[in-house]
Design a protein that fits this description.
The complex is a heterodimer of chains A (190) and B (313). By secondary structure, chain A is α+β, with helices and mostly antiparallel strands. Chain A is built from four helices and six strands; from the N terminus they run H-H-E-E-E-E-E-E-H-H. In chain A, the strands form two sheets. A four-stranded antiparallel beta sheet of chain A has the order 1-2-3-4, covered by helices on one side. In chain B, a hairpin with a 2-residue loop joins strand 5 and strand 6. Classes of the chains: A alpha+beta (190), B alpha+beta (313).
Chain lengths: 190, 313
């Protein structure tokens, strides 16, 4: 009896906390301010977006250059027609050398590559790579990411969560970002 | 084999201890951070640090956190605990760590070689967790290991070598350039006529300050994903241009063979249908170079010592 109490206390005090600290330190709250390069580039993208927004998307105007909220309208003729979702795009200080982090805000669309916490697995079985994070290039833009995400939505044939949704979402609870996940691809049909 | 009589594992002392009667504290440090050894049989090594070796990919991330934690602990304490990981750090499919790294405890936790050539962690004098030989790393150099793991943890193509970056020609922007590349694809700024830019073998041009920070992280043209050729190859027609400067010719000779890996078709080509940029150049180049793919390029990290790195705020 006594023993198990001791063990529990120990696990809490000395195990979990340091690990959690390490994990959360890399996620959004402690984000550093954008570098000058990142600022310039994002301002350019924003101007370009206003002139020539990708079809089906609307940038919600805020004064925060580092976090964009974007409305996505499901394309007509697809499972998501007439539905509207919100994407949250967070940029690191080193953008565009690093991919932005893109998630769906709740409620996230039901899709075999979108987890209920909004994380997106925009990957391809054949490539073992995720075009959001693995295959990022600084020539890509918010616009090009949006188009990829809409095409992922549009090509879906079923509205359902990924098979490992529960396990994945549970694992994310201590602050893990989707960029830290190496996606392991479920299928190449979507 | 020397834990005879010990009943508990003290996590603070990192060693097996024998508790005094009915006390649930370690006799040497008085902490209650102990666990009965019997309960620990079958506990995977990662669990000692709260890492759960689930049979899914998440443990690849767990290891980095575990390593960070271990380093903190090592800094303040004697090396009771050693970290071992996989020796074959080459990811076979461009993915991190294969079946997962392992922490193996040296020192106070007894470890012995087993008959089948594996290694066993012994608890309470009996065999605990058996590990296959491929799963551990033997040799000194904890720092190197951590560094390698960190590098493997990075996403995307490996860095370009310093010598191949240096050899990338500098060109003066002419009208001809502006017809094909009016903007730098990285910063999205317009090129100015007469200003200087760096030219990749695929002819894509970028501001020097834009392309180098990317290449020191990933050897891949941002637009078409063609890699810089290893220095010394005759891949690029305009290669030995004047101002590129071959400052480090010795380095280039030692690195050239290693980097003949060319590209990784599995990584790049499947995306071409999504790629919003022209890629005809790259395709022909890919076929021409035809190098076999290899992940062994992780050996060098040019990012750390490259003076052009602009991110030192």
């Amino acid at each position: 009896m006594q023993r198990s109490v001791v063990k529990k206390k120990v696990m809490k005090a000395n195990f979990v906390n340091p690990v959690e600290e390490t994990m959360t330190s890399s996620s959004a709250p402690s984000r550093k301010a954008l570098s000058k390069i990142a600022c310039n580039r994002l301002q350019k993208e924003l101007v370009e977006w206003q002139v020539n927004p990708p079809a089906g998307f609307k940038h919600k105007v805020t004064d925060n250059l580092q976090r964009w909220i974007i409305e996505v309208n499901g394309a007509s003729g697809t499972l998501y027609a007439n539905e509207c979702y919100q994407l949250q795009v967070d940029f690191s200080e080193h953008y565009p050398m690093e991919a932005p982090q893109v998630i769906f805000l709740s409620p996230a669309p039901f899709h075999p590559h979108i987890y209920s916490n909004g994380h997106i697995c925009l990957g391809f079985h054949i490539a073992n790579a995720d075009i959001l994070y693995d295959s990022w290039s600084p020539a890509m833009t918010v616009s090009s990411i949006c188009i990829s995400i809409l095409s992922m939505l549009s090509s879906s044939t079923v509205k359902q969560r990924p098979a490992d949704n529960d396990r994945y979402v549970k694992n994310c609870r201590n602050g893990r970002s989707p960029k830290e996940t190496r996606w392991w691809f479920h299928d190449d049909k979507v | 084999m020397s834990s005879g009589g010990n009943t508990h594992w003290c996590y603070r002392c990192s060693r097996p201890v024998r508790l005094r009667v009915r006390d649930a504290v370690c006799p040497s440090c008085d902490s209650g951070f102990v666990q009965e050894l019997d309960e620990m049989e079958g506990v995977a090594p990662l669990d000692f640090y709260g890492m759960h070796a689930d049979n899914d990919h998440d443990q690849r991330f767990g290891i980095m956190e575990a390593l960070a934690l271990m380093r903190q602990r090592l800094a303040g304490r004697n090396r009771d605990v050693d970290i071992r990981g996989r020796s074959g750090l080459v990811p076979e499919h461009g993915l991190g760590f294969g079946s997962g790294p392992w922490l193996i405890f040296r020192g106070q936790i007894p470890v012995r070689m087993s008959e089948n050539g594996g290694i066993e962690v012994l608890f309470n004098g009996g065999p605990g967790v058996g590990l296959r030989r491929e799963d551990y790393f033997v040799g000194p150099g904890l720092d190197e290991l951590v560094e390698q793991l960190a590098r493997n943890g990075r996403r995307g193509p490996p860095p370009a070598s310093r010598s191949s970056i240096d050899a990338m020609p500098t060109v003066k922007i002419t009208q001809r350039h502006l017809r094909t590349d009016s903007h730098c694809a990285v910063c999205k700024d317009k090129f100015e006529l007469g200003s200087e830019a760096r030219q990749m073998p695929c002819d894509h041009i970028y501001h020097s300050d834009c392309i180098i920070p990317w290449l020191v992280q990933h050897n891949s043209c941002p637009v078409c994903r063609l890699e810089l050729p290893p220095q010394g190859s005759s891949n690029s027609r305009s290669n030995q241009n004047s101002s590129g400067g071959n400052r480090s010719s010795t380095t280039s000779s030692t690195t050239s063979g290693r980097e003949s890996s060319g590209h990784n078709p599995g990584r790049r080509n499947p995306f071409s249908f999504l790629w919003p940029f022209r890629s005809s150049n790259s395709n022909s180049h890919h076929n021409a170079t035809g190098g076999s793919s290899s992940a062994a390029i992780h050996e060098e990290n040019h990012e750390m010592d490259y003076s052009g790195w602009p991110f030192d705020y």
